[in-house]
Amino acid sequence: MNAGEQPLLRVAGLNRSYGSRVACADIAFELYPGEILAVVGESGSGKTTLLNCIAGRLRPDRGSVEYDIRDSGLRDIWQLAEAERRMLARTDWGYVQQNPRDGLRAAVSAGANIGERLMLVGARHYGAIREQSAGWMARVELDAERIDELPTAFSGGMQQRLNIARNLVTHPRLVFMDEPTASLDVSVQARLLDLLRNLSAELQVAAVIVTHDLAVARLLAQRMLVMRGGVVVEDGLTDQVLDDPQHPYTQLLVTSVLRAA
Amino acid sequence: MTTAAGYNFGYLDEQTKRMIRRALLKAVAIPGYQVPFGSREMPLPYGWGTGGIQVTAAVIGAEDVLKVIDQGSDDTTNAVNIRRFFARVTGVRTTERTTEATLIQTRHRIPETPLKDGQILIYQVPIPEMLRWLEPREAETRTMHALAEYGLMHVRLYEDIAQHGHIAATYDYPVVVNERYLMRPSPIPKFDNPKMHRSPALQLFGAGREKRIYAVPPYTAVRSLDFEDHPFEVQRWDACCALCGSRDSFLDEVITDDRGGRMFTCSDSDYCRNRREAGHAPAVTASEVSA
Predict the structure, then answer these.
(1) Which of A83, A124, A147 is closest, CB to CB, to B227?
(2) Is A47's pLDDT higher than 60?
(3) A150-153 contacts at long range (C-beta below 8 A, 24 or more positions apart)
């Protein structure tokens, strides 16, 4: 990243606990435009809590989450009015859940699912909305002929691609992903990862990806954070962390990956 | 003017009427906003107009003339019973003539005869929340109302066009009141939606089971949602009323036998009768239609 460039997201001193259980302790990092950051760690290490805190879904107990809003610069999202935060979440951000059915509207067609954000921000021309939906279906490698089918008619991998298209339709600058490939089988995972990599390169969208799969981090992310017990134990360039892990926990994580070949 | 012994005027006690009137004032002050109120048990089941009947009871006065319609008609069970109920507990004069009434309680229709200044139209509302089937979380729909985030409603209209080629919703058609609140116009046919726009009459909506009251004050803008390339349209019929020959009113289809015979008649019985009394008749006879 260029040294003089302004970060897109700056997190400082972020804390969040549930009662006496600490989920995130003093987390700080910066994310630059177009950069992909992976957050890895075992279950219960606070990854998803961190993601929800920075995605405006869960208020942190302490700390700041500053985001570079298009016309007013870096501002703490938790100081914004609720209306502004919701506006950000449906225009400038995306959120891809582990289970695509959590993100999709099951009762309306694929086209309506993709067009929803456009309608939320004021698009009122049916033909134009439909055209954009069909365009996005093609971009995520779905058959645009199936635009009027319900999400339930699509396979799991297709649903996740639909979910991604639905998030990217407003050209967000930052996408949050919570285990985007975990619910898919291995061959579908590979295709989806390929798609995500191409889309992020093409659209220059930044992303925070929560995953427990080091292969996902290796394939997509430039940088990574390793979390354990709510604390970031190691961070750095992905290749550096994976090839030369410094912290004992990271070393354990890297060596415990099954190798098929 | 006599009322049934043992009952307070208007059935409800004075404190309850006061509480409902306060909710009504708030509703009129914020057109289209759903005001919660302490809905009471009424001597009829939910779904039969417990909301409308409470609103009527709270605003009715000794000088009022009451008309009650159900699906446009004065002589269906719901209308007859509610009219008789108020005649008993208030002793007010009742009427079937739209022009004579000062209060009109309605289920699912707006009279064809244009309303005028000073009249009050009271709707019986089953489900006040327009966003319910799109967003089941009540806390979330309230936030959406607070922030005027209504784009989701267009997702439903989009889906209608995608599945049917046109906006297929025919009743309960979403409107925006005073360019601010999304409102469910109770299940009136969308044919009646344009009549709500800048109506000289005060329109009050009561939902008894859901404990909500909302209102459209006189001369308030009421806009039906649509798409630029699929504008709002009301339904049209090929037939005319088989009794009065009207081509402008909302028609009910009536099955006349089990061999496919049918006729169309005005849903508004008072409007139809006035036209027949004025000498209007169908251009084609009813027998021709059923032949």
Answers:
(1) A124
(2) yes
(3) A150/A106, A150/A107, A150/A108, A150/A109, A150/A110, A151/A100, A151/A101, A151/A104, A151/A105, A151/A106, A151/A110, A151/A113, A152/A106
Both structure tokens of B265: 């008649």
B155:A130 CB<8 A: no
pTM: 0.88
**How far apart are the C-alpha atoms of B281 and B186, rounded to whole Å?**
32
CB-based contact A109 B159, cutoff 8 Å: yes
HSE of B152 in the Cβ direction (CA atoms, 13 Å)?
A: 20
CB contact under 8 A, B151 and A121: yes
- Contact call for residues A211 and A39 (beta carbons, < 8 A): yes
* Averaged pLDDT, groups of 10, chain B, 291 residues long: 70 95 97 96 92 96 95 92 94 95 95 96 95 91 95 94 93 95 93 96 96 97 96 92 92 92 93 93 60 41
B241 is catalytic: yes
- Strand-pairing partners, residue B19, are none
- Both tokens of B264, joined, read 């169309």
- What residues does B106 pair with on adjacent strands? B69, B123
Residues in chain A: 261
Catalytic residue among B6, B10, B32, B208: B32
Query: pLDDT digit string (tens) for A115-148?
Result: 999 999 999 999 999 999 999 999 999 999 999 9
From CA B23, how far away is CA B33, in angstroms rounded? Answer: 11
Pull the structure tokens for residue A213. 């799969």
- Whether B32 is a known active-site residue: answer yes
Q: Are B196 and B216 in contact (CB under 8 A)?
A: yes
DSSP character string of A81-134: -HHHHHHHHHHTEEEE-SSHHHHS-TTS-HHHHHHHHHHHTT---HHHHHHHHH
AA identity, residue A78: W
Kindly identify which residue of chain B lies nearest to residue A147, measuring between CA atoms: B162
